[in-house]
Amino acid sequence: MILAAGLGTRMRPLTLTTPKPLLQVGGKALIQYHVERLAAAGFSELLINHAWLGDQVEAFLGDGKRFGVRIRYSAEGEPLETGGGIFRVLDWLSPQGEPFAVVNGDVFTDYPFARLPRRLDGQAHLVLVDNPPQHPQGDFALRDGRVLQEGAERHTFSGVSVLSPRLFEGCEPGAFALAPLLRRAMAAGEVSGERYKGYWVDVGTVERLRQVDRDLRVWDRSTNVNRS
């Protein structure tokens, strides 16, 4: 599942007429990078939720055939937050109780999605990264492959994860956050994790969008790649 239902208010005026997933860096829409990299990693079925200007996302990506995947959509109207958005489509994501991958649509990373675990030892697996300047306090700690709420060295949740439907036991339809569910699972020792040291940016502001665009164009020049 690619989470793409944010309103993009911090990206205005760019997002007044274009949904954040379709903003471009390096000559491509942000969400296109996720779709292509997930396809390259062997994922064949994707679900994308959307809200603000979501019809543009559907029109751009279509059924996913040109990317070698099958794409379905969850049109939320009003955003349901991360937890509520996932819970709404849980039966599709996990019809037989199997784990599923979730990627935030507003991050840019070269994380190799093929490395994500196909099975879980617990309720969730989180990819953590070094703390960016705008979030120096981090989110969680990592010790011996387990994610903890507290620790001497904290890292930032990248927005890339594998989740079990067991994480959502007891939830009701509606808008709710994912973080409290993860913290509950951490308290029970049910969250594994890894630290990724490659490229990752939370594309939450216009400046960080421009940063990714600059980085990609520098990389393209150094490798003679044409993304147009």
TrEMBL record:
User: Which UniProt keyword terms apply here?
Assistant: Nucleotidyltransferase, Transferase
Instruction: Respond yes or no to whether keyword Plastid is given for this record.
Output: no
Q: Which residues form the Nucleotidyl transferase domain?
A: 1-136
For this protein, the record's CDD domains field holds:
NTP_transferase_like_1
Which GO molecular function annotation, any one, does this entry have? nucleotidyltransferase activity
NCBIfam families referenced in this protein's UniProt entry, alphabetically: NAMPUrTaseMurU
Indicate what this protein is called per its UniProt record: Mannose-1-phosphate guanylyltransferase
Species this protein is from: Marinobacterium nitratireducens
